[in-house]
Automatic annotation (TrEMBL):
The lineage of its organism: Eukaryota, Metamonada, Preaxostyla, Oxymonadida, Streblomastigidae. It comes from the Eukaryota. This is RRM domain-containing protein. Residues 12-44 form the RRM domain. It comes from Streblomastix strix. Gene3D superfamilies: 3.30.70.330.
Length: 163
């Protein structure tokens, strides 16, 4: 698992955004003293997206103790925030919302049923972690958001399937 975390950290370190001032002059690369608000926002979204990807891979490849650690650091709450669009709290990107819902459902499903797949560490059902994860979703106000986003996505999928 440490090897996977090191790979994730290297990915995050490689993220750099070209920063330009209002007059178009290049200010270099990096996160320090961003002069361009849009560059800062893009960098912020990119780091958040890559962080979620790393946590997702830990979920996919991790054993029971890794799943417990994900619950401890608030992985499901983070995914619920991704789905939240109320009051401009988060990015309103359909793809991010879809993946947030997908990650929540897969994580809860694996915790509820356990996992016994070839090539991945197996573990028994972890009902205590399911309960703690559901509490995280509630704490983030995610129940209503997740429900409304599921309805929106179903509506969009029906429209897309008719084209």
């Amino acid at each position: 698992m440490q090897k996977l975390l090191n790979i994730c950290l290297r990915q995050l370190e490689r993220i750099s955004v070209k920063i330009t001032s209002k007059n178009g002059k290049s200010l270099g690369y990096g996160f320090i003293e961003m002069a361009d608000v849009e560059s800062a926002q893009r960098a912020h979204l990119q780091v958040r997206s890559k962080s979620r990807d790393c946590f997702y891979w830990v979920h996919l490849c991790g054993d029971a103790s890794d799943q417990s650690e994900l619950v401890s650091v608030g992985y499901v709450g983070m995914c619920a925030i991704t789905c939240s669009t109320a009051g401009g709290q988060s990015e309103e990107q359909d793809w991010e919302i879809y993946w947030g819902l997908f990650r929540i459902s897969q994580f809860l499903k694996k915790l509820h049923l356990g996992r016994n797949y070839a090539g991945q560490p197996s573990f028994q059902p972890l009902p205590v972690l399911v309960q703690r994860s559901q509490e995280q979703i509630e704490e983030e106000g995610g129940n209503e958001e997740v429900d409304s986003q599921q309805i929106n996505i179903e509506y969009c999928l029906r429209i897309w399937n008719t084209k």
